[in-house]
Amino acid sequence: MYDSNPTIPSTEKVIDESLQGSAYGNELDVADVDSKKFYIESYGCQMNFSDSEIVASILSKSGFKPTRNIDNSDLILINTCSIREKAEETVRKRLKIFDAIKQQKPGLMVGVLGCMAERLKKKFLEEERLVDIVVGPDAYRDLPNLIDNAAEGEKGINVLLSREETYADISPVRLDNNGISAFISIMRGCDNMCSFCVVPFTRGRERSRDSFSIVAEAQDLFDKGYKEITLLGQNVDSYKWENPETNELVDFANLLEMCALVSPKLRVRFSTSHPKDITDQVLYTMKKYDNICKYIHLPVQSGNSRVLDLMNRTYDRDWYIQKVDRIYEIMPDCAISSDIIAGFCSETEEEHQDTLSIMDYANYSMSYMFFYSERPGTLAARKLTDDIPLETKKRRLQEVVEKQQTLSLQHNLKEIGKVYEILIEGDSKKSDLDFKGRNSQNKMTVFPKMEPYKKGDYVKVKILEASSATLKGEIVQ
Ligand code: 5AD
Ligand code: SF4
């Protein structure tokens, strides 16, 4: 679920990866001068970033316009993440800064959205005295109402979780993106109860969004010039929606196919896949359509069966290995990436070695790597002891990171000489003489610009050089 940019960061960066905030907002035009303005910052997973676009849509309908300029805003919103302790610390630091701004600007409102709002509920309003509004992930429709009340001096909170809310009818306001790729949220919540994870508590029960509204959103994006969609959910492979009129069931493989059929020029990606739920039918659907990207984010978390059991992942090492075999058997060109937790409760050195060896086996093209951070209220916090010393956790994480760096480099070196279709996403970060874009396997590729190609075009690029993070090449006709 996390940032899909396949860089292989240093340990420090890995730890911080999901914590990087991003401020969204479009520059104001002259006609907007009199509107009330909101500034929104998002932390954590792509689902949060996608939710911020739903919030922007709800606020736009009630007369607010987005701004990038915090000093210019009447309402500051922070969409928060609770997944690891560090994520929450980062948000608290930001709130202190908003506090200072608020003291200079009476009337400015501050709202906390997302997982921390849900987790800390009323405590937030008590602890952080300058927070005016607290809104959980299923209550964004109530925002305009809560803002009105807060304007009258009444602090507002709505953290009710829902079994139905999917925001299916809300057309997200696309914020701060490249106009080429967009996320589409297909489901909300999670029923898995991995023992380390706070998400089932902050985001509630799993529910799938109406498939017609998803396909309509994909079509609308394509009509507006977008060339790539990523279907988002905590566990996309358990997507299931029943058409109330026909009682027909749409599963994830069906949904993937429906999206792929929007246009062969629209790439379809998805994230995240739980290894227990991804089916052969999904794999064969991926194989059948060239525009479904050959890339699966398949978090392993640990390579040891005893630890996987403690994590309540509901698969063991052999089962995961069989899934990896199946993927490579059906799609030899598919790239697989992972999430890995080092130093989970009672993990031994040998068990840690199992994680390193499964990374080799699966040949991950990249991974998001973390050390275990106990989260209040989770099954692990209640039933297990967080007994691995921090130094050991960090050392094991470092070994995992180094392993991934080696694997990524090997993976990328094998690409030299091959030709890939790349979707041009824009100028490369380092030089406006170069384009950047990704191949189907989600590998970032940089290459010199060539007439008449532009952002949003597909080009064939021959790979000439590789590092662990990036491929370099040139356009071939
Ligand atoms: N500690 C460390 N990492 C965690 N993740 C989830 N909860 C925790 C935790 N308590 C990681 C998992 C998950 C990713 C989104 O975040 O690897 O797949
Ligand atoms: Fe958390 Fe597990 Fe659900 Fe992912 S699948 S959100 S790790 S409980």
Task: Lay out the secondary structure.
Elements: H1 11-16, E1 22-24, E2 36-42, H2 46-61, E3 64-66, E4 75-80, H3 85-104, E5 109-114, H4 115-120, H5 122-127, E6 133-135, H6 143-151, E7 156-158, E8 181-185, E9 187-188, H7 199-203, E10 207-208, H8 211-223, E11 228-232, E12 240-242, E13 249-251, H9 252-260, E14 267-271, H10 280-288, E15 295-297, H11 305-310, H12 317-330, E16 335-342, H13 349-362, E17 366-371, H14 379-383, H15 390-413, E18 419-427, E19 434-438, E20 444-448, E21 458-466, E22 471-475
Parallel strand pairs: 2-3, 2-4, 4-5, 5-6, 6-7, 8-11, 11-14, 15-16, 16-17, 20-22
Antiparallel strand pairs: 1-2, 9-10, 12-13, 18-19, 18-21, 19-20, 21-22
Helix pairs in contact: 9-10, 13-15
Bound molecules: 5'-deoxyadenosine (5AD) and iron/sulfur cluster.
5'-deoxyadenosine binds at residues 1-2, 83-84, 196-197, 299, 301, 339, 341, 370, 372-373, 375.
Major sheet attributes: 7 strands, mixed
- Name the CATH homologous superfamily of the largest domain: tm_1862 like domain
Radius of gyration: 22 Å
The number of domains is 3
CATH topology of the largest domain: pyruvate-formate lyase- activating enzyme
Secondary-structure arrangement, i.e. CATH architecture of the largest domain:
Alpha-Beta Horseshoe
Structural class: alpha/beta
Shape descriptor reads: globular
Number of H- or I-type helical stretches: 15
